[in-house]
Design goal:
The structure is a single chain. This protein is mainly alpha-helical and 340 residues long. It folds into 2 domains: 215 residues, no CATH class; 55 residues, no CATH class. 61% of the residues lie in helices and 6% in strands. It contains 13 helices and 6 strands. It has a two-stranded antiparallel sheet with strand order 1-4. It has a two-stranded antiparallel ribbon with strand order 2-3. A two-stranded antiparallel sheet has the order 5-6. It is elongated and about 75 Å long.
Length: 340
């Protein structure tokens, strides 16, 4: 599953991101995002319904995109993470937390109001309820605002979900350092590999920025909520995460154009016979013992007795396939790390 699935997950995330671009564009244009509140014309109930539907669609698509990308990165790290139990356990814990969060947040997002359609029909449902209750022009009856439904604390919900996103981002970004740092590589190549595997830190930066901006957006002191860039950060985060997840495949390309920085792990060796046995010439490297095949040939006798009196010549034909580590599990890591 790990070998075949992790590469497809960013593609699914990209498909959702493209859908979200359409709803995001519609919501931005209709709701006049980026304008001062006093510059926005008064909207009809029908327009408000459309705006809230687009907003709900954006909310529902946002977390699955990030979850698919994080799952892709986690599965990739499991593939190259070697046999260290604490690394594997950490990755599995993060994976299931990530999966649990997206389910919980999606369900909570979809049913944040009662009844369900109150989340996008609040304008006309409130108006109908106020008319039925005989409310004044401000929708009040005996000092109480009349509403056609109820929702949980949306401000707290959005801030908590953004905080969880930052937390899982930091956890995923920290793991590559644990994987790479103990490998037998030059320090320069370790740093290069860590930088590439940890490009998600850029996404984490945007996540933190989004959390800060949304905190101010929902602050009661903010009376101009539409005049801000916070609305764009969710799309920045989603699309940047997809790009960051794909950077790991650019290792060979960067090695090709930046060989002096990333170095080379190519190894070539030849074994030549000498009076003292086989001597090795050329550049060295490690190779798996399973890749060595031997062939025994004897000369100078036609019977078992001849073996006692004569010397034995053993000729070994060696086929060597060089790899960075002799174990199959570690070879998975080095197959990718060799790009650096």
């Amino acid at each position: 599953m790990i070998d075949s699935s992790y590469g497809w997950l960013p593609i699914y995330a990209l498909h959702l991101a493209r859908k979200r671009t359409l709803t995001f564009k519609s919501d931005t244009l209709i709701s006049w995002q980026g304008y001062h509140v006093y510059d926005i014309p008064k909207m009809s109930t029908e327009q408000m319904t459309v705006i809230m539907k687009m907003s709900l669609a954006n909310q529902l698509l946002y977390n699955p995109i990030l979850t698919l990308v994080k799952a892709s990165v986690i599965l990739f790290l499991l593939r190259i993470g070697g046999t260290k139990s604490y690394v594997k356990k950490s990755l599995y814990v993060i994976f299931f937390i990530n999966a649990g969060l997206v389910i919980a947040i999606f369900v909570a997002d979809a049913f944040q109001c009662t009844p369900f359609h109150y989340v996008y029909d609040a304008s006309w449902m409130d108006l109908e309820a106020q008319r039925a209750a005989g409310a004044d022009s401000k929708g009040m009856v005996d000092g109480k605002l009349i509403k056609g439904g109820k929702c949980f604390n949306q401000r707290l919900f959005f801030l908590l979900s953004a905080g969880f996103a930052v937390g899982t981002d930091l956890a995923v970004v920290a793991i590559p350092t644990l994987i790479v740092w103990n490998l037998k590589m030059t320090k320069r190549r370790k740093i290069a590999a860590i930088c590439v595997l940890s490009t998600g830190v850029l996404v984490t930066g945007v996540s933190i920025l989004r959390l800060v901006l949304y905190y101010w957006r929902f602050d009661p002191r903010n009376h101009d909520t539409t005049y801000n860039v916070d609305y764009t950060t969710s799309s920045m985060e989603a699309n940047l995460s997809i790009a960051a997840a794909c950077i790991t495949s650019l290792g060979p390309l960067m090695k090709r154009f930046l060989p002096r920085i990333l170095g080379s792990n190519d190894a070539s060796s030849t074994y030549e016979p000498s009076t003292e046995g086989f001597q090795k010439s050329g550049q060295g490297g490690q190779f798996p013992l399973k890749a060595v095949s031997g062939k025994l040939e004897t000369y100078g006798w036609n019977s078992e007795e001849a073996i006692v009196d004569n010397d034995i010549l053993k000729t070994i034909n060696v086929d060597i396939s060089f790899d960075a580590k002799s174990s199959r599990e570690q070879a998975r890591r080095y197959k990718y790390m060799d790009s650096f």
